[in-house]
Design goal:
The chain is mainly α and 200 residues long. It contains seven helices and six strands; from the N terminus they run ααββαααββαββα. A hairpin with a 2-residue loop joins strand 3 and strand 4.
Length: 200
């Protein structure tokens, strides 16, 4: 199965658009992690997966795209939110990257009025696939300023970051049905093996 198909079927366990973006790099805890974003087609598939790119748009031949920029944004966001998950101080260079992204978001934010109620929207350049990073950045900023950063955690099984929405903030895995069960099965196998070794 190629990366496009994997992306179409991958779970969105981050609980936030920006964390799901960070999680396009899987198994950061192992020697050979998996990067699902390897080109334009994979980026388009992911944008459609999370619902910020309309499925009706099919012709992307002439649109601008810079994979290096996408990955650069993903990695600095990972450093920021992983740092928060482990209560580490955010580095100055990452704060500057965040501030630069926020400035672009502010310039792209437009105000309009409906029934005398002010509203805003984020203007996206349809000819630049990288402009969708602004929506991800906005979600990241809202999470960062939500005063709930203590709910950001790293899955001890796969390394994905996730927002713990449980009542008591007691979730240990990004997904109990996948990583949680894998860890349980592994512990069960190890305990059975130790018991067998003792008998032998």
């Amino acid at each position: 199965m190629d990366n496009v198909e994997i992306i179409k079927n991958m779970p969105l366990d981050g609980g936030n658009l920006s964390l799901n973006f960070i999680n396009t790099y899987k198994d950061r805890l192992v020697a050979s992690p998996i990067d699902y974003l390897t080109g334009k087609e994979e980026w388009i598939a992911w944008l459609k997966k999370v619902g910020i790119l309309e499925n009706e748009i099919t012709n992307f031949d002439d649109v601008d795209f810079n994979l290096k920029e996408v990955k650069k944004k993903r990695e600095f966001l990972h450093r920021v939110f992983q740092g928060l998950a482990f209560h580490r101080e955010i580095k100055e260079k990452d704060l500057k990257c965040f501030d630069s992204l926020l400035q672009k978001i502010r310039r792209a934010t437009k105000i309009f009025v409906v029934d005398n109620i002010p509203q805003e929207y984020l203007e996206i350049d349809a000819n630049d696939l990288n402009s969708y990073i602004l929506k991800i950045g906005k979600a990241a900023h809202e999470l960062l300023m939500s005063e709930k950063t203590d709910r950001i955690k790293e899955c001890g099984n796969c390394g994905w970051l996730y927002y713990d929405s449980s009542k008591n903030k007691c979730r240990k895995w990004c997904n109990m049905d996948t990583c949680g069960n894998e860890v349980k099965a592994r512990k069960y196998y190890e305990s059975k093996k130790k018991l067998k070794d003792k008998i032998v």
